[in-house]
Every structure is written in structure tokens, then in C-alpha cells.
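A common beginner's mistake is to predict each chain separately and then try to dock the pieces by hand. The better habit, illustrated here, is to supply every component at once so that their relative placement is modeled jointly.
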Amino acid sequence: MAHERRAGVPVAGKDQLKQGKDGKSIAVQGLRGAILRGDMVPGQRLVETELVELFGVTRGSVRSAIDDLVADGLVERIHNRGARVRRVSLDQAIEIMECRRVLEGLIAAKAAERAGPDDIARLRVHGELLRQAIRDGEMGKYSTLNQELHAMLAEISGQSTAADLIGRLNAQIVRHQFQLAQRTAWPRSSVDEHGTIVEAVAAKDPAWAERAMHEHLSHVITALKNAGE
Amino acid sequence: MAHERRAGVPVAGKDQLKQGKDGKSIAVQGLRGAILRGDMVPGQRLVETELVELFGVTRGSVRSAIDDLVADGLVERIHNRGARVRRVSLDQAIEIMECRRVLEGLIAAKAAERAGPDDIARLRVHGELLRQAIRDGEMGKYSTLNQELHAMLAEISGQSTAADLIGRLNAQIVRHQFQLAQRTAWPRSSVDEHGTIVEAVAAKDPAWAERAMHEHLSHVITALKNAGE
DNA sequence: GCTCGCAGGATTGTCAACATTTTCGCTAGC
DNA sequence: GCTAGCGAAAATGTTGACAATCCTGCGAGC
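With all components supplied together, the output reads:
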């Protein structure tokens, strides 16, 4: 009480470093990585003792890590019956993408409001790289650049709350997105949607940026729906 | 889906019963309630041993409960330095409300798509009650009805992901909203925004419903901004 | 007079053992 | 031949004790 420290501001830069040491964070990072990487498939049981010897941490840490991932929606647990990797149905994935759509729209709009000249320059460079990756058919590079572009917009927008929510939502559907990227040949019309978004932000036109982002993600959602049939 | 803990509708009856028994859930509910009710003010330290004797559960349960609330953004914890009730700045509250704005817009749109005749009837009744509460100046009743209306839309929309996100976001800013409700005399123009939303949903016009919801929450955000000056 | 260093006390983080619940295989009975 | 009931094994949930870390107050030294 004597020490009224910093009013809680956002996130955790140094916390991450500190947490890297203790057992819980090793378990969290290991488990999250394994699930996101696909080493553990949806529906698979997570037996605590197995994870103990897999990660070399105590059972308490594993337990705590599972709690964390349950809160993130990556794992589901049933009382006295253990935990398993959450299986996200296509309908749920669509729901999640619809949330992402409006949140990314918000970010795009705010980014358009706040973007400075240097931000715009960086965005343009990234947009050009994206176009090249698409033209050369390098899907891996495209995916990486795509994520970086969204991250850049999030940073410019300053909407850390929205960015955080999107991060969580995305983690839940990486598998669907991966499948989508592999099975879908993107139509020519959607090739330059990123370019439009960049342009809208550069023009500092929030409404346009939001519309462009909405349109872009609507196409992804449509592709998701079609993939299910 | 993964989190049917708090938000809209208690799907699992027996889970509630089970959760009521074990220590962790008692601690979670108790702590969340205390924070939301304002019994514990932002910035206040949460000493584990104190909570132990307050709720009559073990320290492990308290610890686990704190982890849960950290994941929900209600509490922040610093390594080896304990946990405290998260202090949400006005800027952060505005950010959160902007997320809520677009998510509620999504829900309103989807609700307009899916609403059946009985849903519409229920909404109209609720809208009328809301109007009465405003006319009679009963702010407490207004607040309750307002929440119920939003919950009803969330249920109709079927977007449980968005509803869950909104539930979490809302919990983080109850304090701000409470202060806002007490200090602000709502302008006449915003009196019947709820009516407009209900009408738009009843007309099964998603775009209109989304616009109406956006406008409504934009006014709340504006009020929030003004309250800070 | 001020700063640096150092125990003392308090609080959190970790761990290993105990209790409870569920599941699966087996036997007995219809 | 099939189903119901029982018991052992495995996995989970819980508890209490131990170790590491941090804040506070006091005293010595410059």
C-alpha cells in the first residue's frame, strides 16, 4: 500500500523473460507450440504425467499450463476426466473469423487515423513484398508476410486490446487456416486486397480502410464455408 | 463453447453444481464477484492468505482462481510480487468499448438475420420496458434491462464466440460504466436508440441493425471520453 | 546527515504425497 | 451368448509442507 506503483498498463515484455525460467511457462510455451504446430491433434487427450516427462517439469506446472490454455480456448477440460485439445468445428471457425473480421476492421480504421509518414512507407514496402510473394506463388512467404502486415496494422492502430483478442482467436483456428491455405487456390480478384488496405490506410481514410479489411476477410470466410462442402 | 462459465446462459446445470462444491470455483466466483461489485478496488493487493480465510478454501484454490482472473484481464500479477486488481485507465476503457462496439454490431447484424417471430415479440416487450424505465428515471432497472437486451440479442444471433468476448470485455470496465451511469445525464437523443435497434432487428435488416448498434455505442464512447475531462 | 548494506519478516512459487473419481477388464448370473 | 455388477489400476483433484524471492526497518560507515 505504501508503494503505489504503475497503474497497470498493458502487456508483458519483461514478464515474458522472467517467465521463461519457471516451469509453468516452459509447459505453457511447449504445449501451445505443440498444439499450434499440429504435433497434438484436436481431440487428443492430454495426460498430465505424459506431459511431465515430455517437458521435464512438474505436474503442477503442467496442470497450471493446461488451465492457461483452457482460458485461451485451445484446450477443453472435463471435470475428473482430463483435458483434450479442443476440436473447433467449421461453424465455430466461421464464427471466430466473423469476430476477427470486425476487430480487424476496427484496427484498420484506427490505423488509418493514426498512421504517420514512416508507417505508411513501411506498409507500402510490405505490400509490395506481398504482391511479389503472390506472383511467385510462394505461399509460405505469403503467409508470413500476411501475418506481419496485420501485426503492423495492429501496432500502428494502438488498439492493443483488439490485437490481443485477435491473437487469441487466431490461435484457435490455425489448423483451419492452414488447411484452407493448402486446399484453396485464391481467386485473382482477391490478389490485391492487401494493396487496397494499404492504400486506404495511406490515404488516412478510416471508413475505406475498414471496408477494405471487411471485404478481404469476407472472402476468407466465404472460402472457409465453401471448403466445408 | 469453451467458456460457458459466466457469459450468457448456463448451459450445463450439473457443472454449476459441481463447480459450487470445489474450492477453486468458490474462490473464482467469490473473487470475481467482489471485484465486480467493487468490494475490491483497482490497485488493491490480493494477498493469498487473506483470501484463504475470507473464502474458507485452500491456498491452492485461491492461487488457481487468481490465475483465472488474470486470464480474464481482471487481475494482474507480477512475478514474486503478488497479484492486484487491475487498474483500467480511461484510454484502455475506451479501447475496450471500441471493441465492444464492433462486436455488438456483429451480434446485432446476425440477430437481425436469424430472428424469428417469437424472438421479435420478446425484443419488443423488452424495448417497451426499457422505454418505461427511462421515462420513470429508474436507472437501476434501466441498467438491468439494458444488459438483458444485449444478452437476448447475443442469444438470438447464435454468435457465442462474440458473446463470450463481450462478456470478458464488459467485466473489465464495469467500474467505468458504473461511474458513467451515475455521473451522466443521458441526452434525449439517445433515449430511444434501443428502440431503433429492436426495430432494425424486427425488420430483419442486418446492415441497419449493425449501424444502429454502432451509433448507440458510439454515444457511450463519447460520453466516456467527455467524462475524463 | 545521507547512503549503503544487512538481517527479519512476510509472501509467493514449487514440489511431493494423499484422497477421489473414473475407466476398463473380469467374473457371475440370467 | 449377453448383460449387470464388482474390483483393480490409472488419472485427476487437493492438500500441506518446503524453498526462493522480495519488501522493510535498523545500524554502520563515509
